[in-house]
Amino acid sequence: MRVVYILWLREVKKYLRSRTQIVASLGSPIMYLGVLGFGLGPVFQRAGEGSYLQFMAPGVIGMTVLFSSMFGGIALLWDRQFGFLKETLVAPVPRLWIMAGRTLGGATVATFQGLLIFAVSLVAGFRPVSVWALPAALGVLVLTAVVFAALGTAIGSTLKDMQGFQLVMNFMVMPIFFLSGALYPLANLPKALAVLTRVDPLTYGVDGVRGALSGITHFGISWDFGALAFVAVLLLGVGAWRFSKIEI
Amino acid sequence: MIKVENLVKRFGELTAVDDVSFEVRRGEVFAFLGPNGAGKTTTIKMLTTLLRPTSGRVELDGLDPVAKRDEVRKRFGVVFQDPSLDQELTAWENMEIHGVLYGVPRKVRRERAEELLKLFELWERRDALVKTFSGGMRRRLEIARGLLHTPKVLFLDEPTLGLDPQSRNQMWTHVKKLNVSDQVTVFLTTHYMDEAERVADRISVIDHGRIVATGSPAELKERTQTDSLEGAFLALTGTTIRDETAGSADAMRQMARMWSGRQK
Ligand SMILES: Nc1ncnc2c1ncn2[C@@H]1O[C@H](COP(=O)(O)OP(=O)(O)O)[C@@H](O)[C@H]1O
Ligand SMILES: [Mg+2]
User: Fold this and answer.
1) Dihedral of CA A104/A108/A111/A113: which sign?
2) pTM of whole model > 0.80?
3) H and E: helices and strands count for chain B
4) Under 8 Å between Cβ of A97 and A178
5) Which residues make Cβ contacts (< 8 Å) with residue B134, sequence separation at least 6?
6) Interface TM-score (ipTM) > 0.85
7) Which of B257, B1, B11 is nearest to B135 (CA)?
8) CB B14 less than 6 A from any atom of ligand 1
9) How many Å apart are CA B75 and CA B68, to the nearest integer?
10) What is the pLDDT of residues A66-117, one digit of tens each?
11) What DSSP element (H or E) covers B17?
12) Cα–Cα 20 to 30 A to B134, which of A180, B112, B141, B219?
């Protein structure tokens, strides 16, 4: 347990130390909030869907968690060849503990990042429907972070080089974001798109946070919770398995 | 302390380690000397439980690294060819994490970390981030860290690569000191002849995955009728230049260098 804790602490410490990186990583979410939030606002309103900012702020929070947790996991690829990972992999402890410490640390950092964007969206004018909704939103956020940190670990353990990293960014992370309904409502989508959005785990993360904070939900929060918990367990299993297969 | 018999490692078609046998005695400093791609790192990886041998027998302190993995891991410390410190953490934090990973009790861990950091002249800089350290300091920290759990064997894979003569000299002085005071067996690889000659009790010259000669520096010189270890080495391995195959690891190494340059 001490091993899991110290590796978790390592991730959190490093995060808190990297001030410039934190600021930099907030750039694109803020741009989405500002430009899309205010730019598409009038159209959205005219379509009778209410305030776009209320609608998309949870989506941008979800996006932040997605990027942050996936990056944390994929950074493993880096660490594996030229960093600290080797030191942990020759230690006399089960790999599962190492994977758990790392992944939970990454998920914690991603949750922080999500909360930070939540704070930014409050400044931009976003208003949660009630204070009571906050714990539910936090719960969904944590689960979402675990899902993608585990997925990132699985990918980071599997990739061989940096070209693979580009591929994952373009053909995995971006589609996960765009298919999640972070930016548009899930109702009345074309059939193919509707199917794709439903297999995207981020869809449930965004829908859950939106349900809690804005009172707009497509599936219902408990369904979102269930779906995320299921995928989290599944991906933690896959991540642990891929991690156990790393050769250095 | 280490016993290797008919060890073979194949990567697909390539035989990286080809029927290697040698023995390292307790308390000895033993060097693997060989050109790039000779199979030094691959051998170390098999001895340190990171790779499974294709065939052959390995024993470390009487234990098989495949069957008794965690027991074996507690018995050695290792400094890899590529750095494995966490640069975003301090020297002290790197030591702490290592101690926890190896289950060293807190009190012992702190005392021994202090002792080792002082020995390797890093104590004043213990709270500085590793990324602010010079190459020599990083290498010293890695050695100090590898010794924290009082291992019986210390593996050093090209520990002085890229260091200036002063740092190299200082590092070997410390290693030699520990070898004598704590009776730590040292297994090192290098392609600097002068180093091998200075610190090693015995040397195996390895080339194309095969051991071509084993003996003390004096014996090797005598056997090849040469008057320097460099002469002996060239007589044993020939004078053709080996290009290390530029695999994906090399490409990443290049990028890693670029990155660490940018961070400074
Ligand atoms: N994981 C691997 N897959 C394929 N080939 C490898 C791998 N690791 C090492 N090799 C090859 O095995 C040979 C020996 O490499 P290595 O043990 O690193 O040599 P040295 O450390 O003596 O320079 C080289 O030809 C190298 O390219
Ligand atoms: Mg090598």
Assistant:
1) negative
2) yes
3) 10, 9
4) no
5) B167
6) yes
7) B257
8) yes
9) 11
10) 999 998 888 888 788 667 899 999 999 999 999 999 999 999 999 999 999 9
11) strand B14-24
12) B112
Residue A162 contacts residue A247 (beta carbons within 8 Å):
no
Q: How far apart are CA A140 and CA A126, in angstroms?
A: 19
Question: What distance in angstroms lies between residue B200's CA and the mean position of ligand 2's atoms?
Answer: 18
Mention every residue, 6+ apart, whose C-beta is less than 8 A from residue B230.
B193
Instruction: Measure the CA–CA gap between B205 and B214, rounded to whole angstroms.
Output: 6
Is-contact A171 A31, C-beta < 8 A? no
* Residue to mutate (ligand 1; options B41, B47, B52; most atoms within 8 A of CB): B41
Residue A162 Cα to ligand 1 middle (Å): 20
Angstrom distance (rounded) from CA B46 to CA A220: 53
Contacts of A88 in chain B (CB under 8 A): 101
Strands B210-215 and B202-207: antiparallel
| Dihedral (CA of A74, A79, A84, A87) sign | positive
The string of DSSP letters for A160-184 reads -SHHHHHHHIIIIIHHHHHTTTSSS
Stated length of chain B? 264
Q: How far is A76 from chain B (nearest CA, A)?
A: 13
Label the pairing between strands B185-190 and B29-33. Answer: parallel
pLDDT digits (tens, 9 = 90+) for B121-167: 999 999 999 999 998 999 999 999 999 999 999 999 999 887 888 88
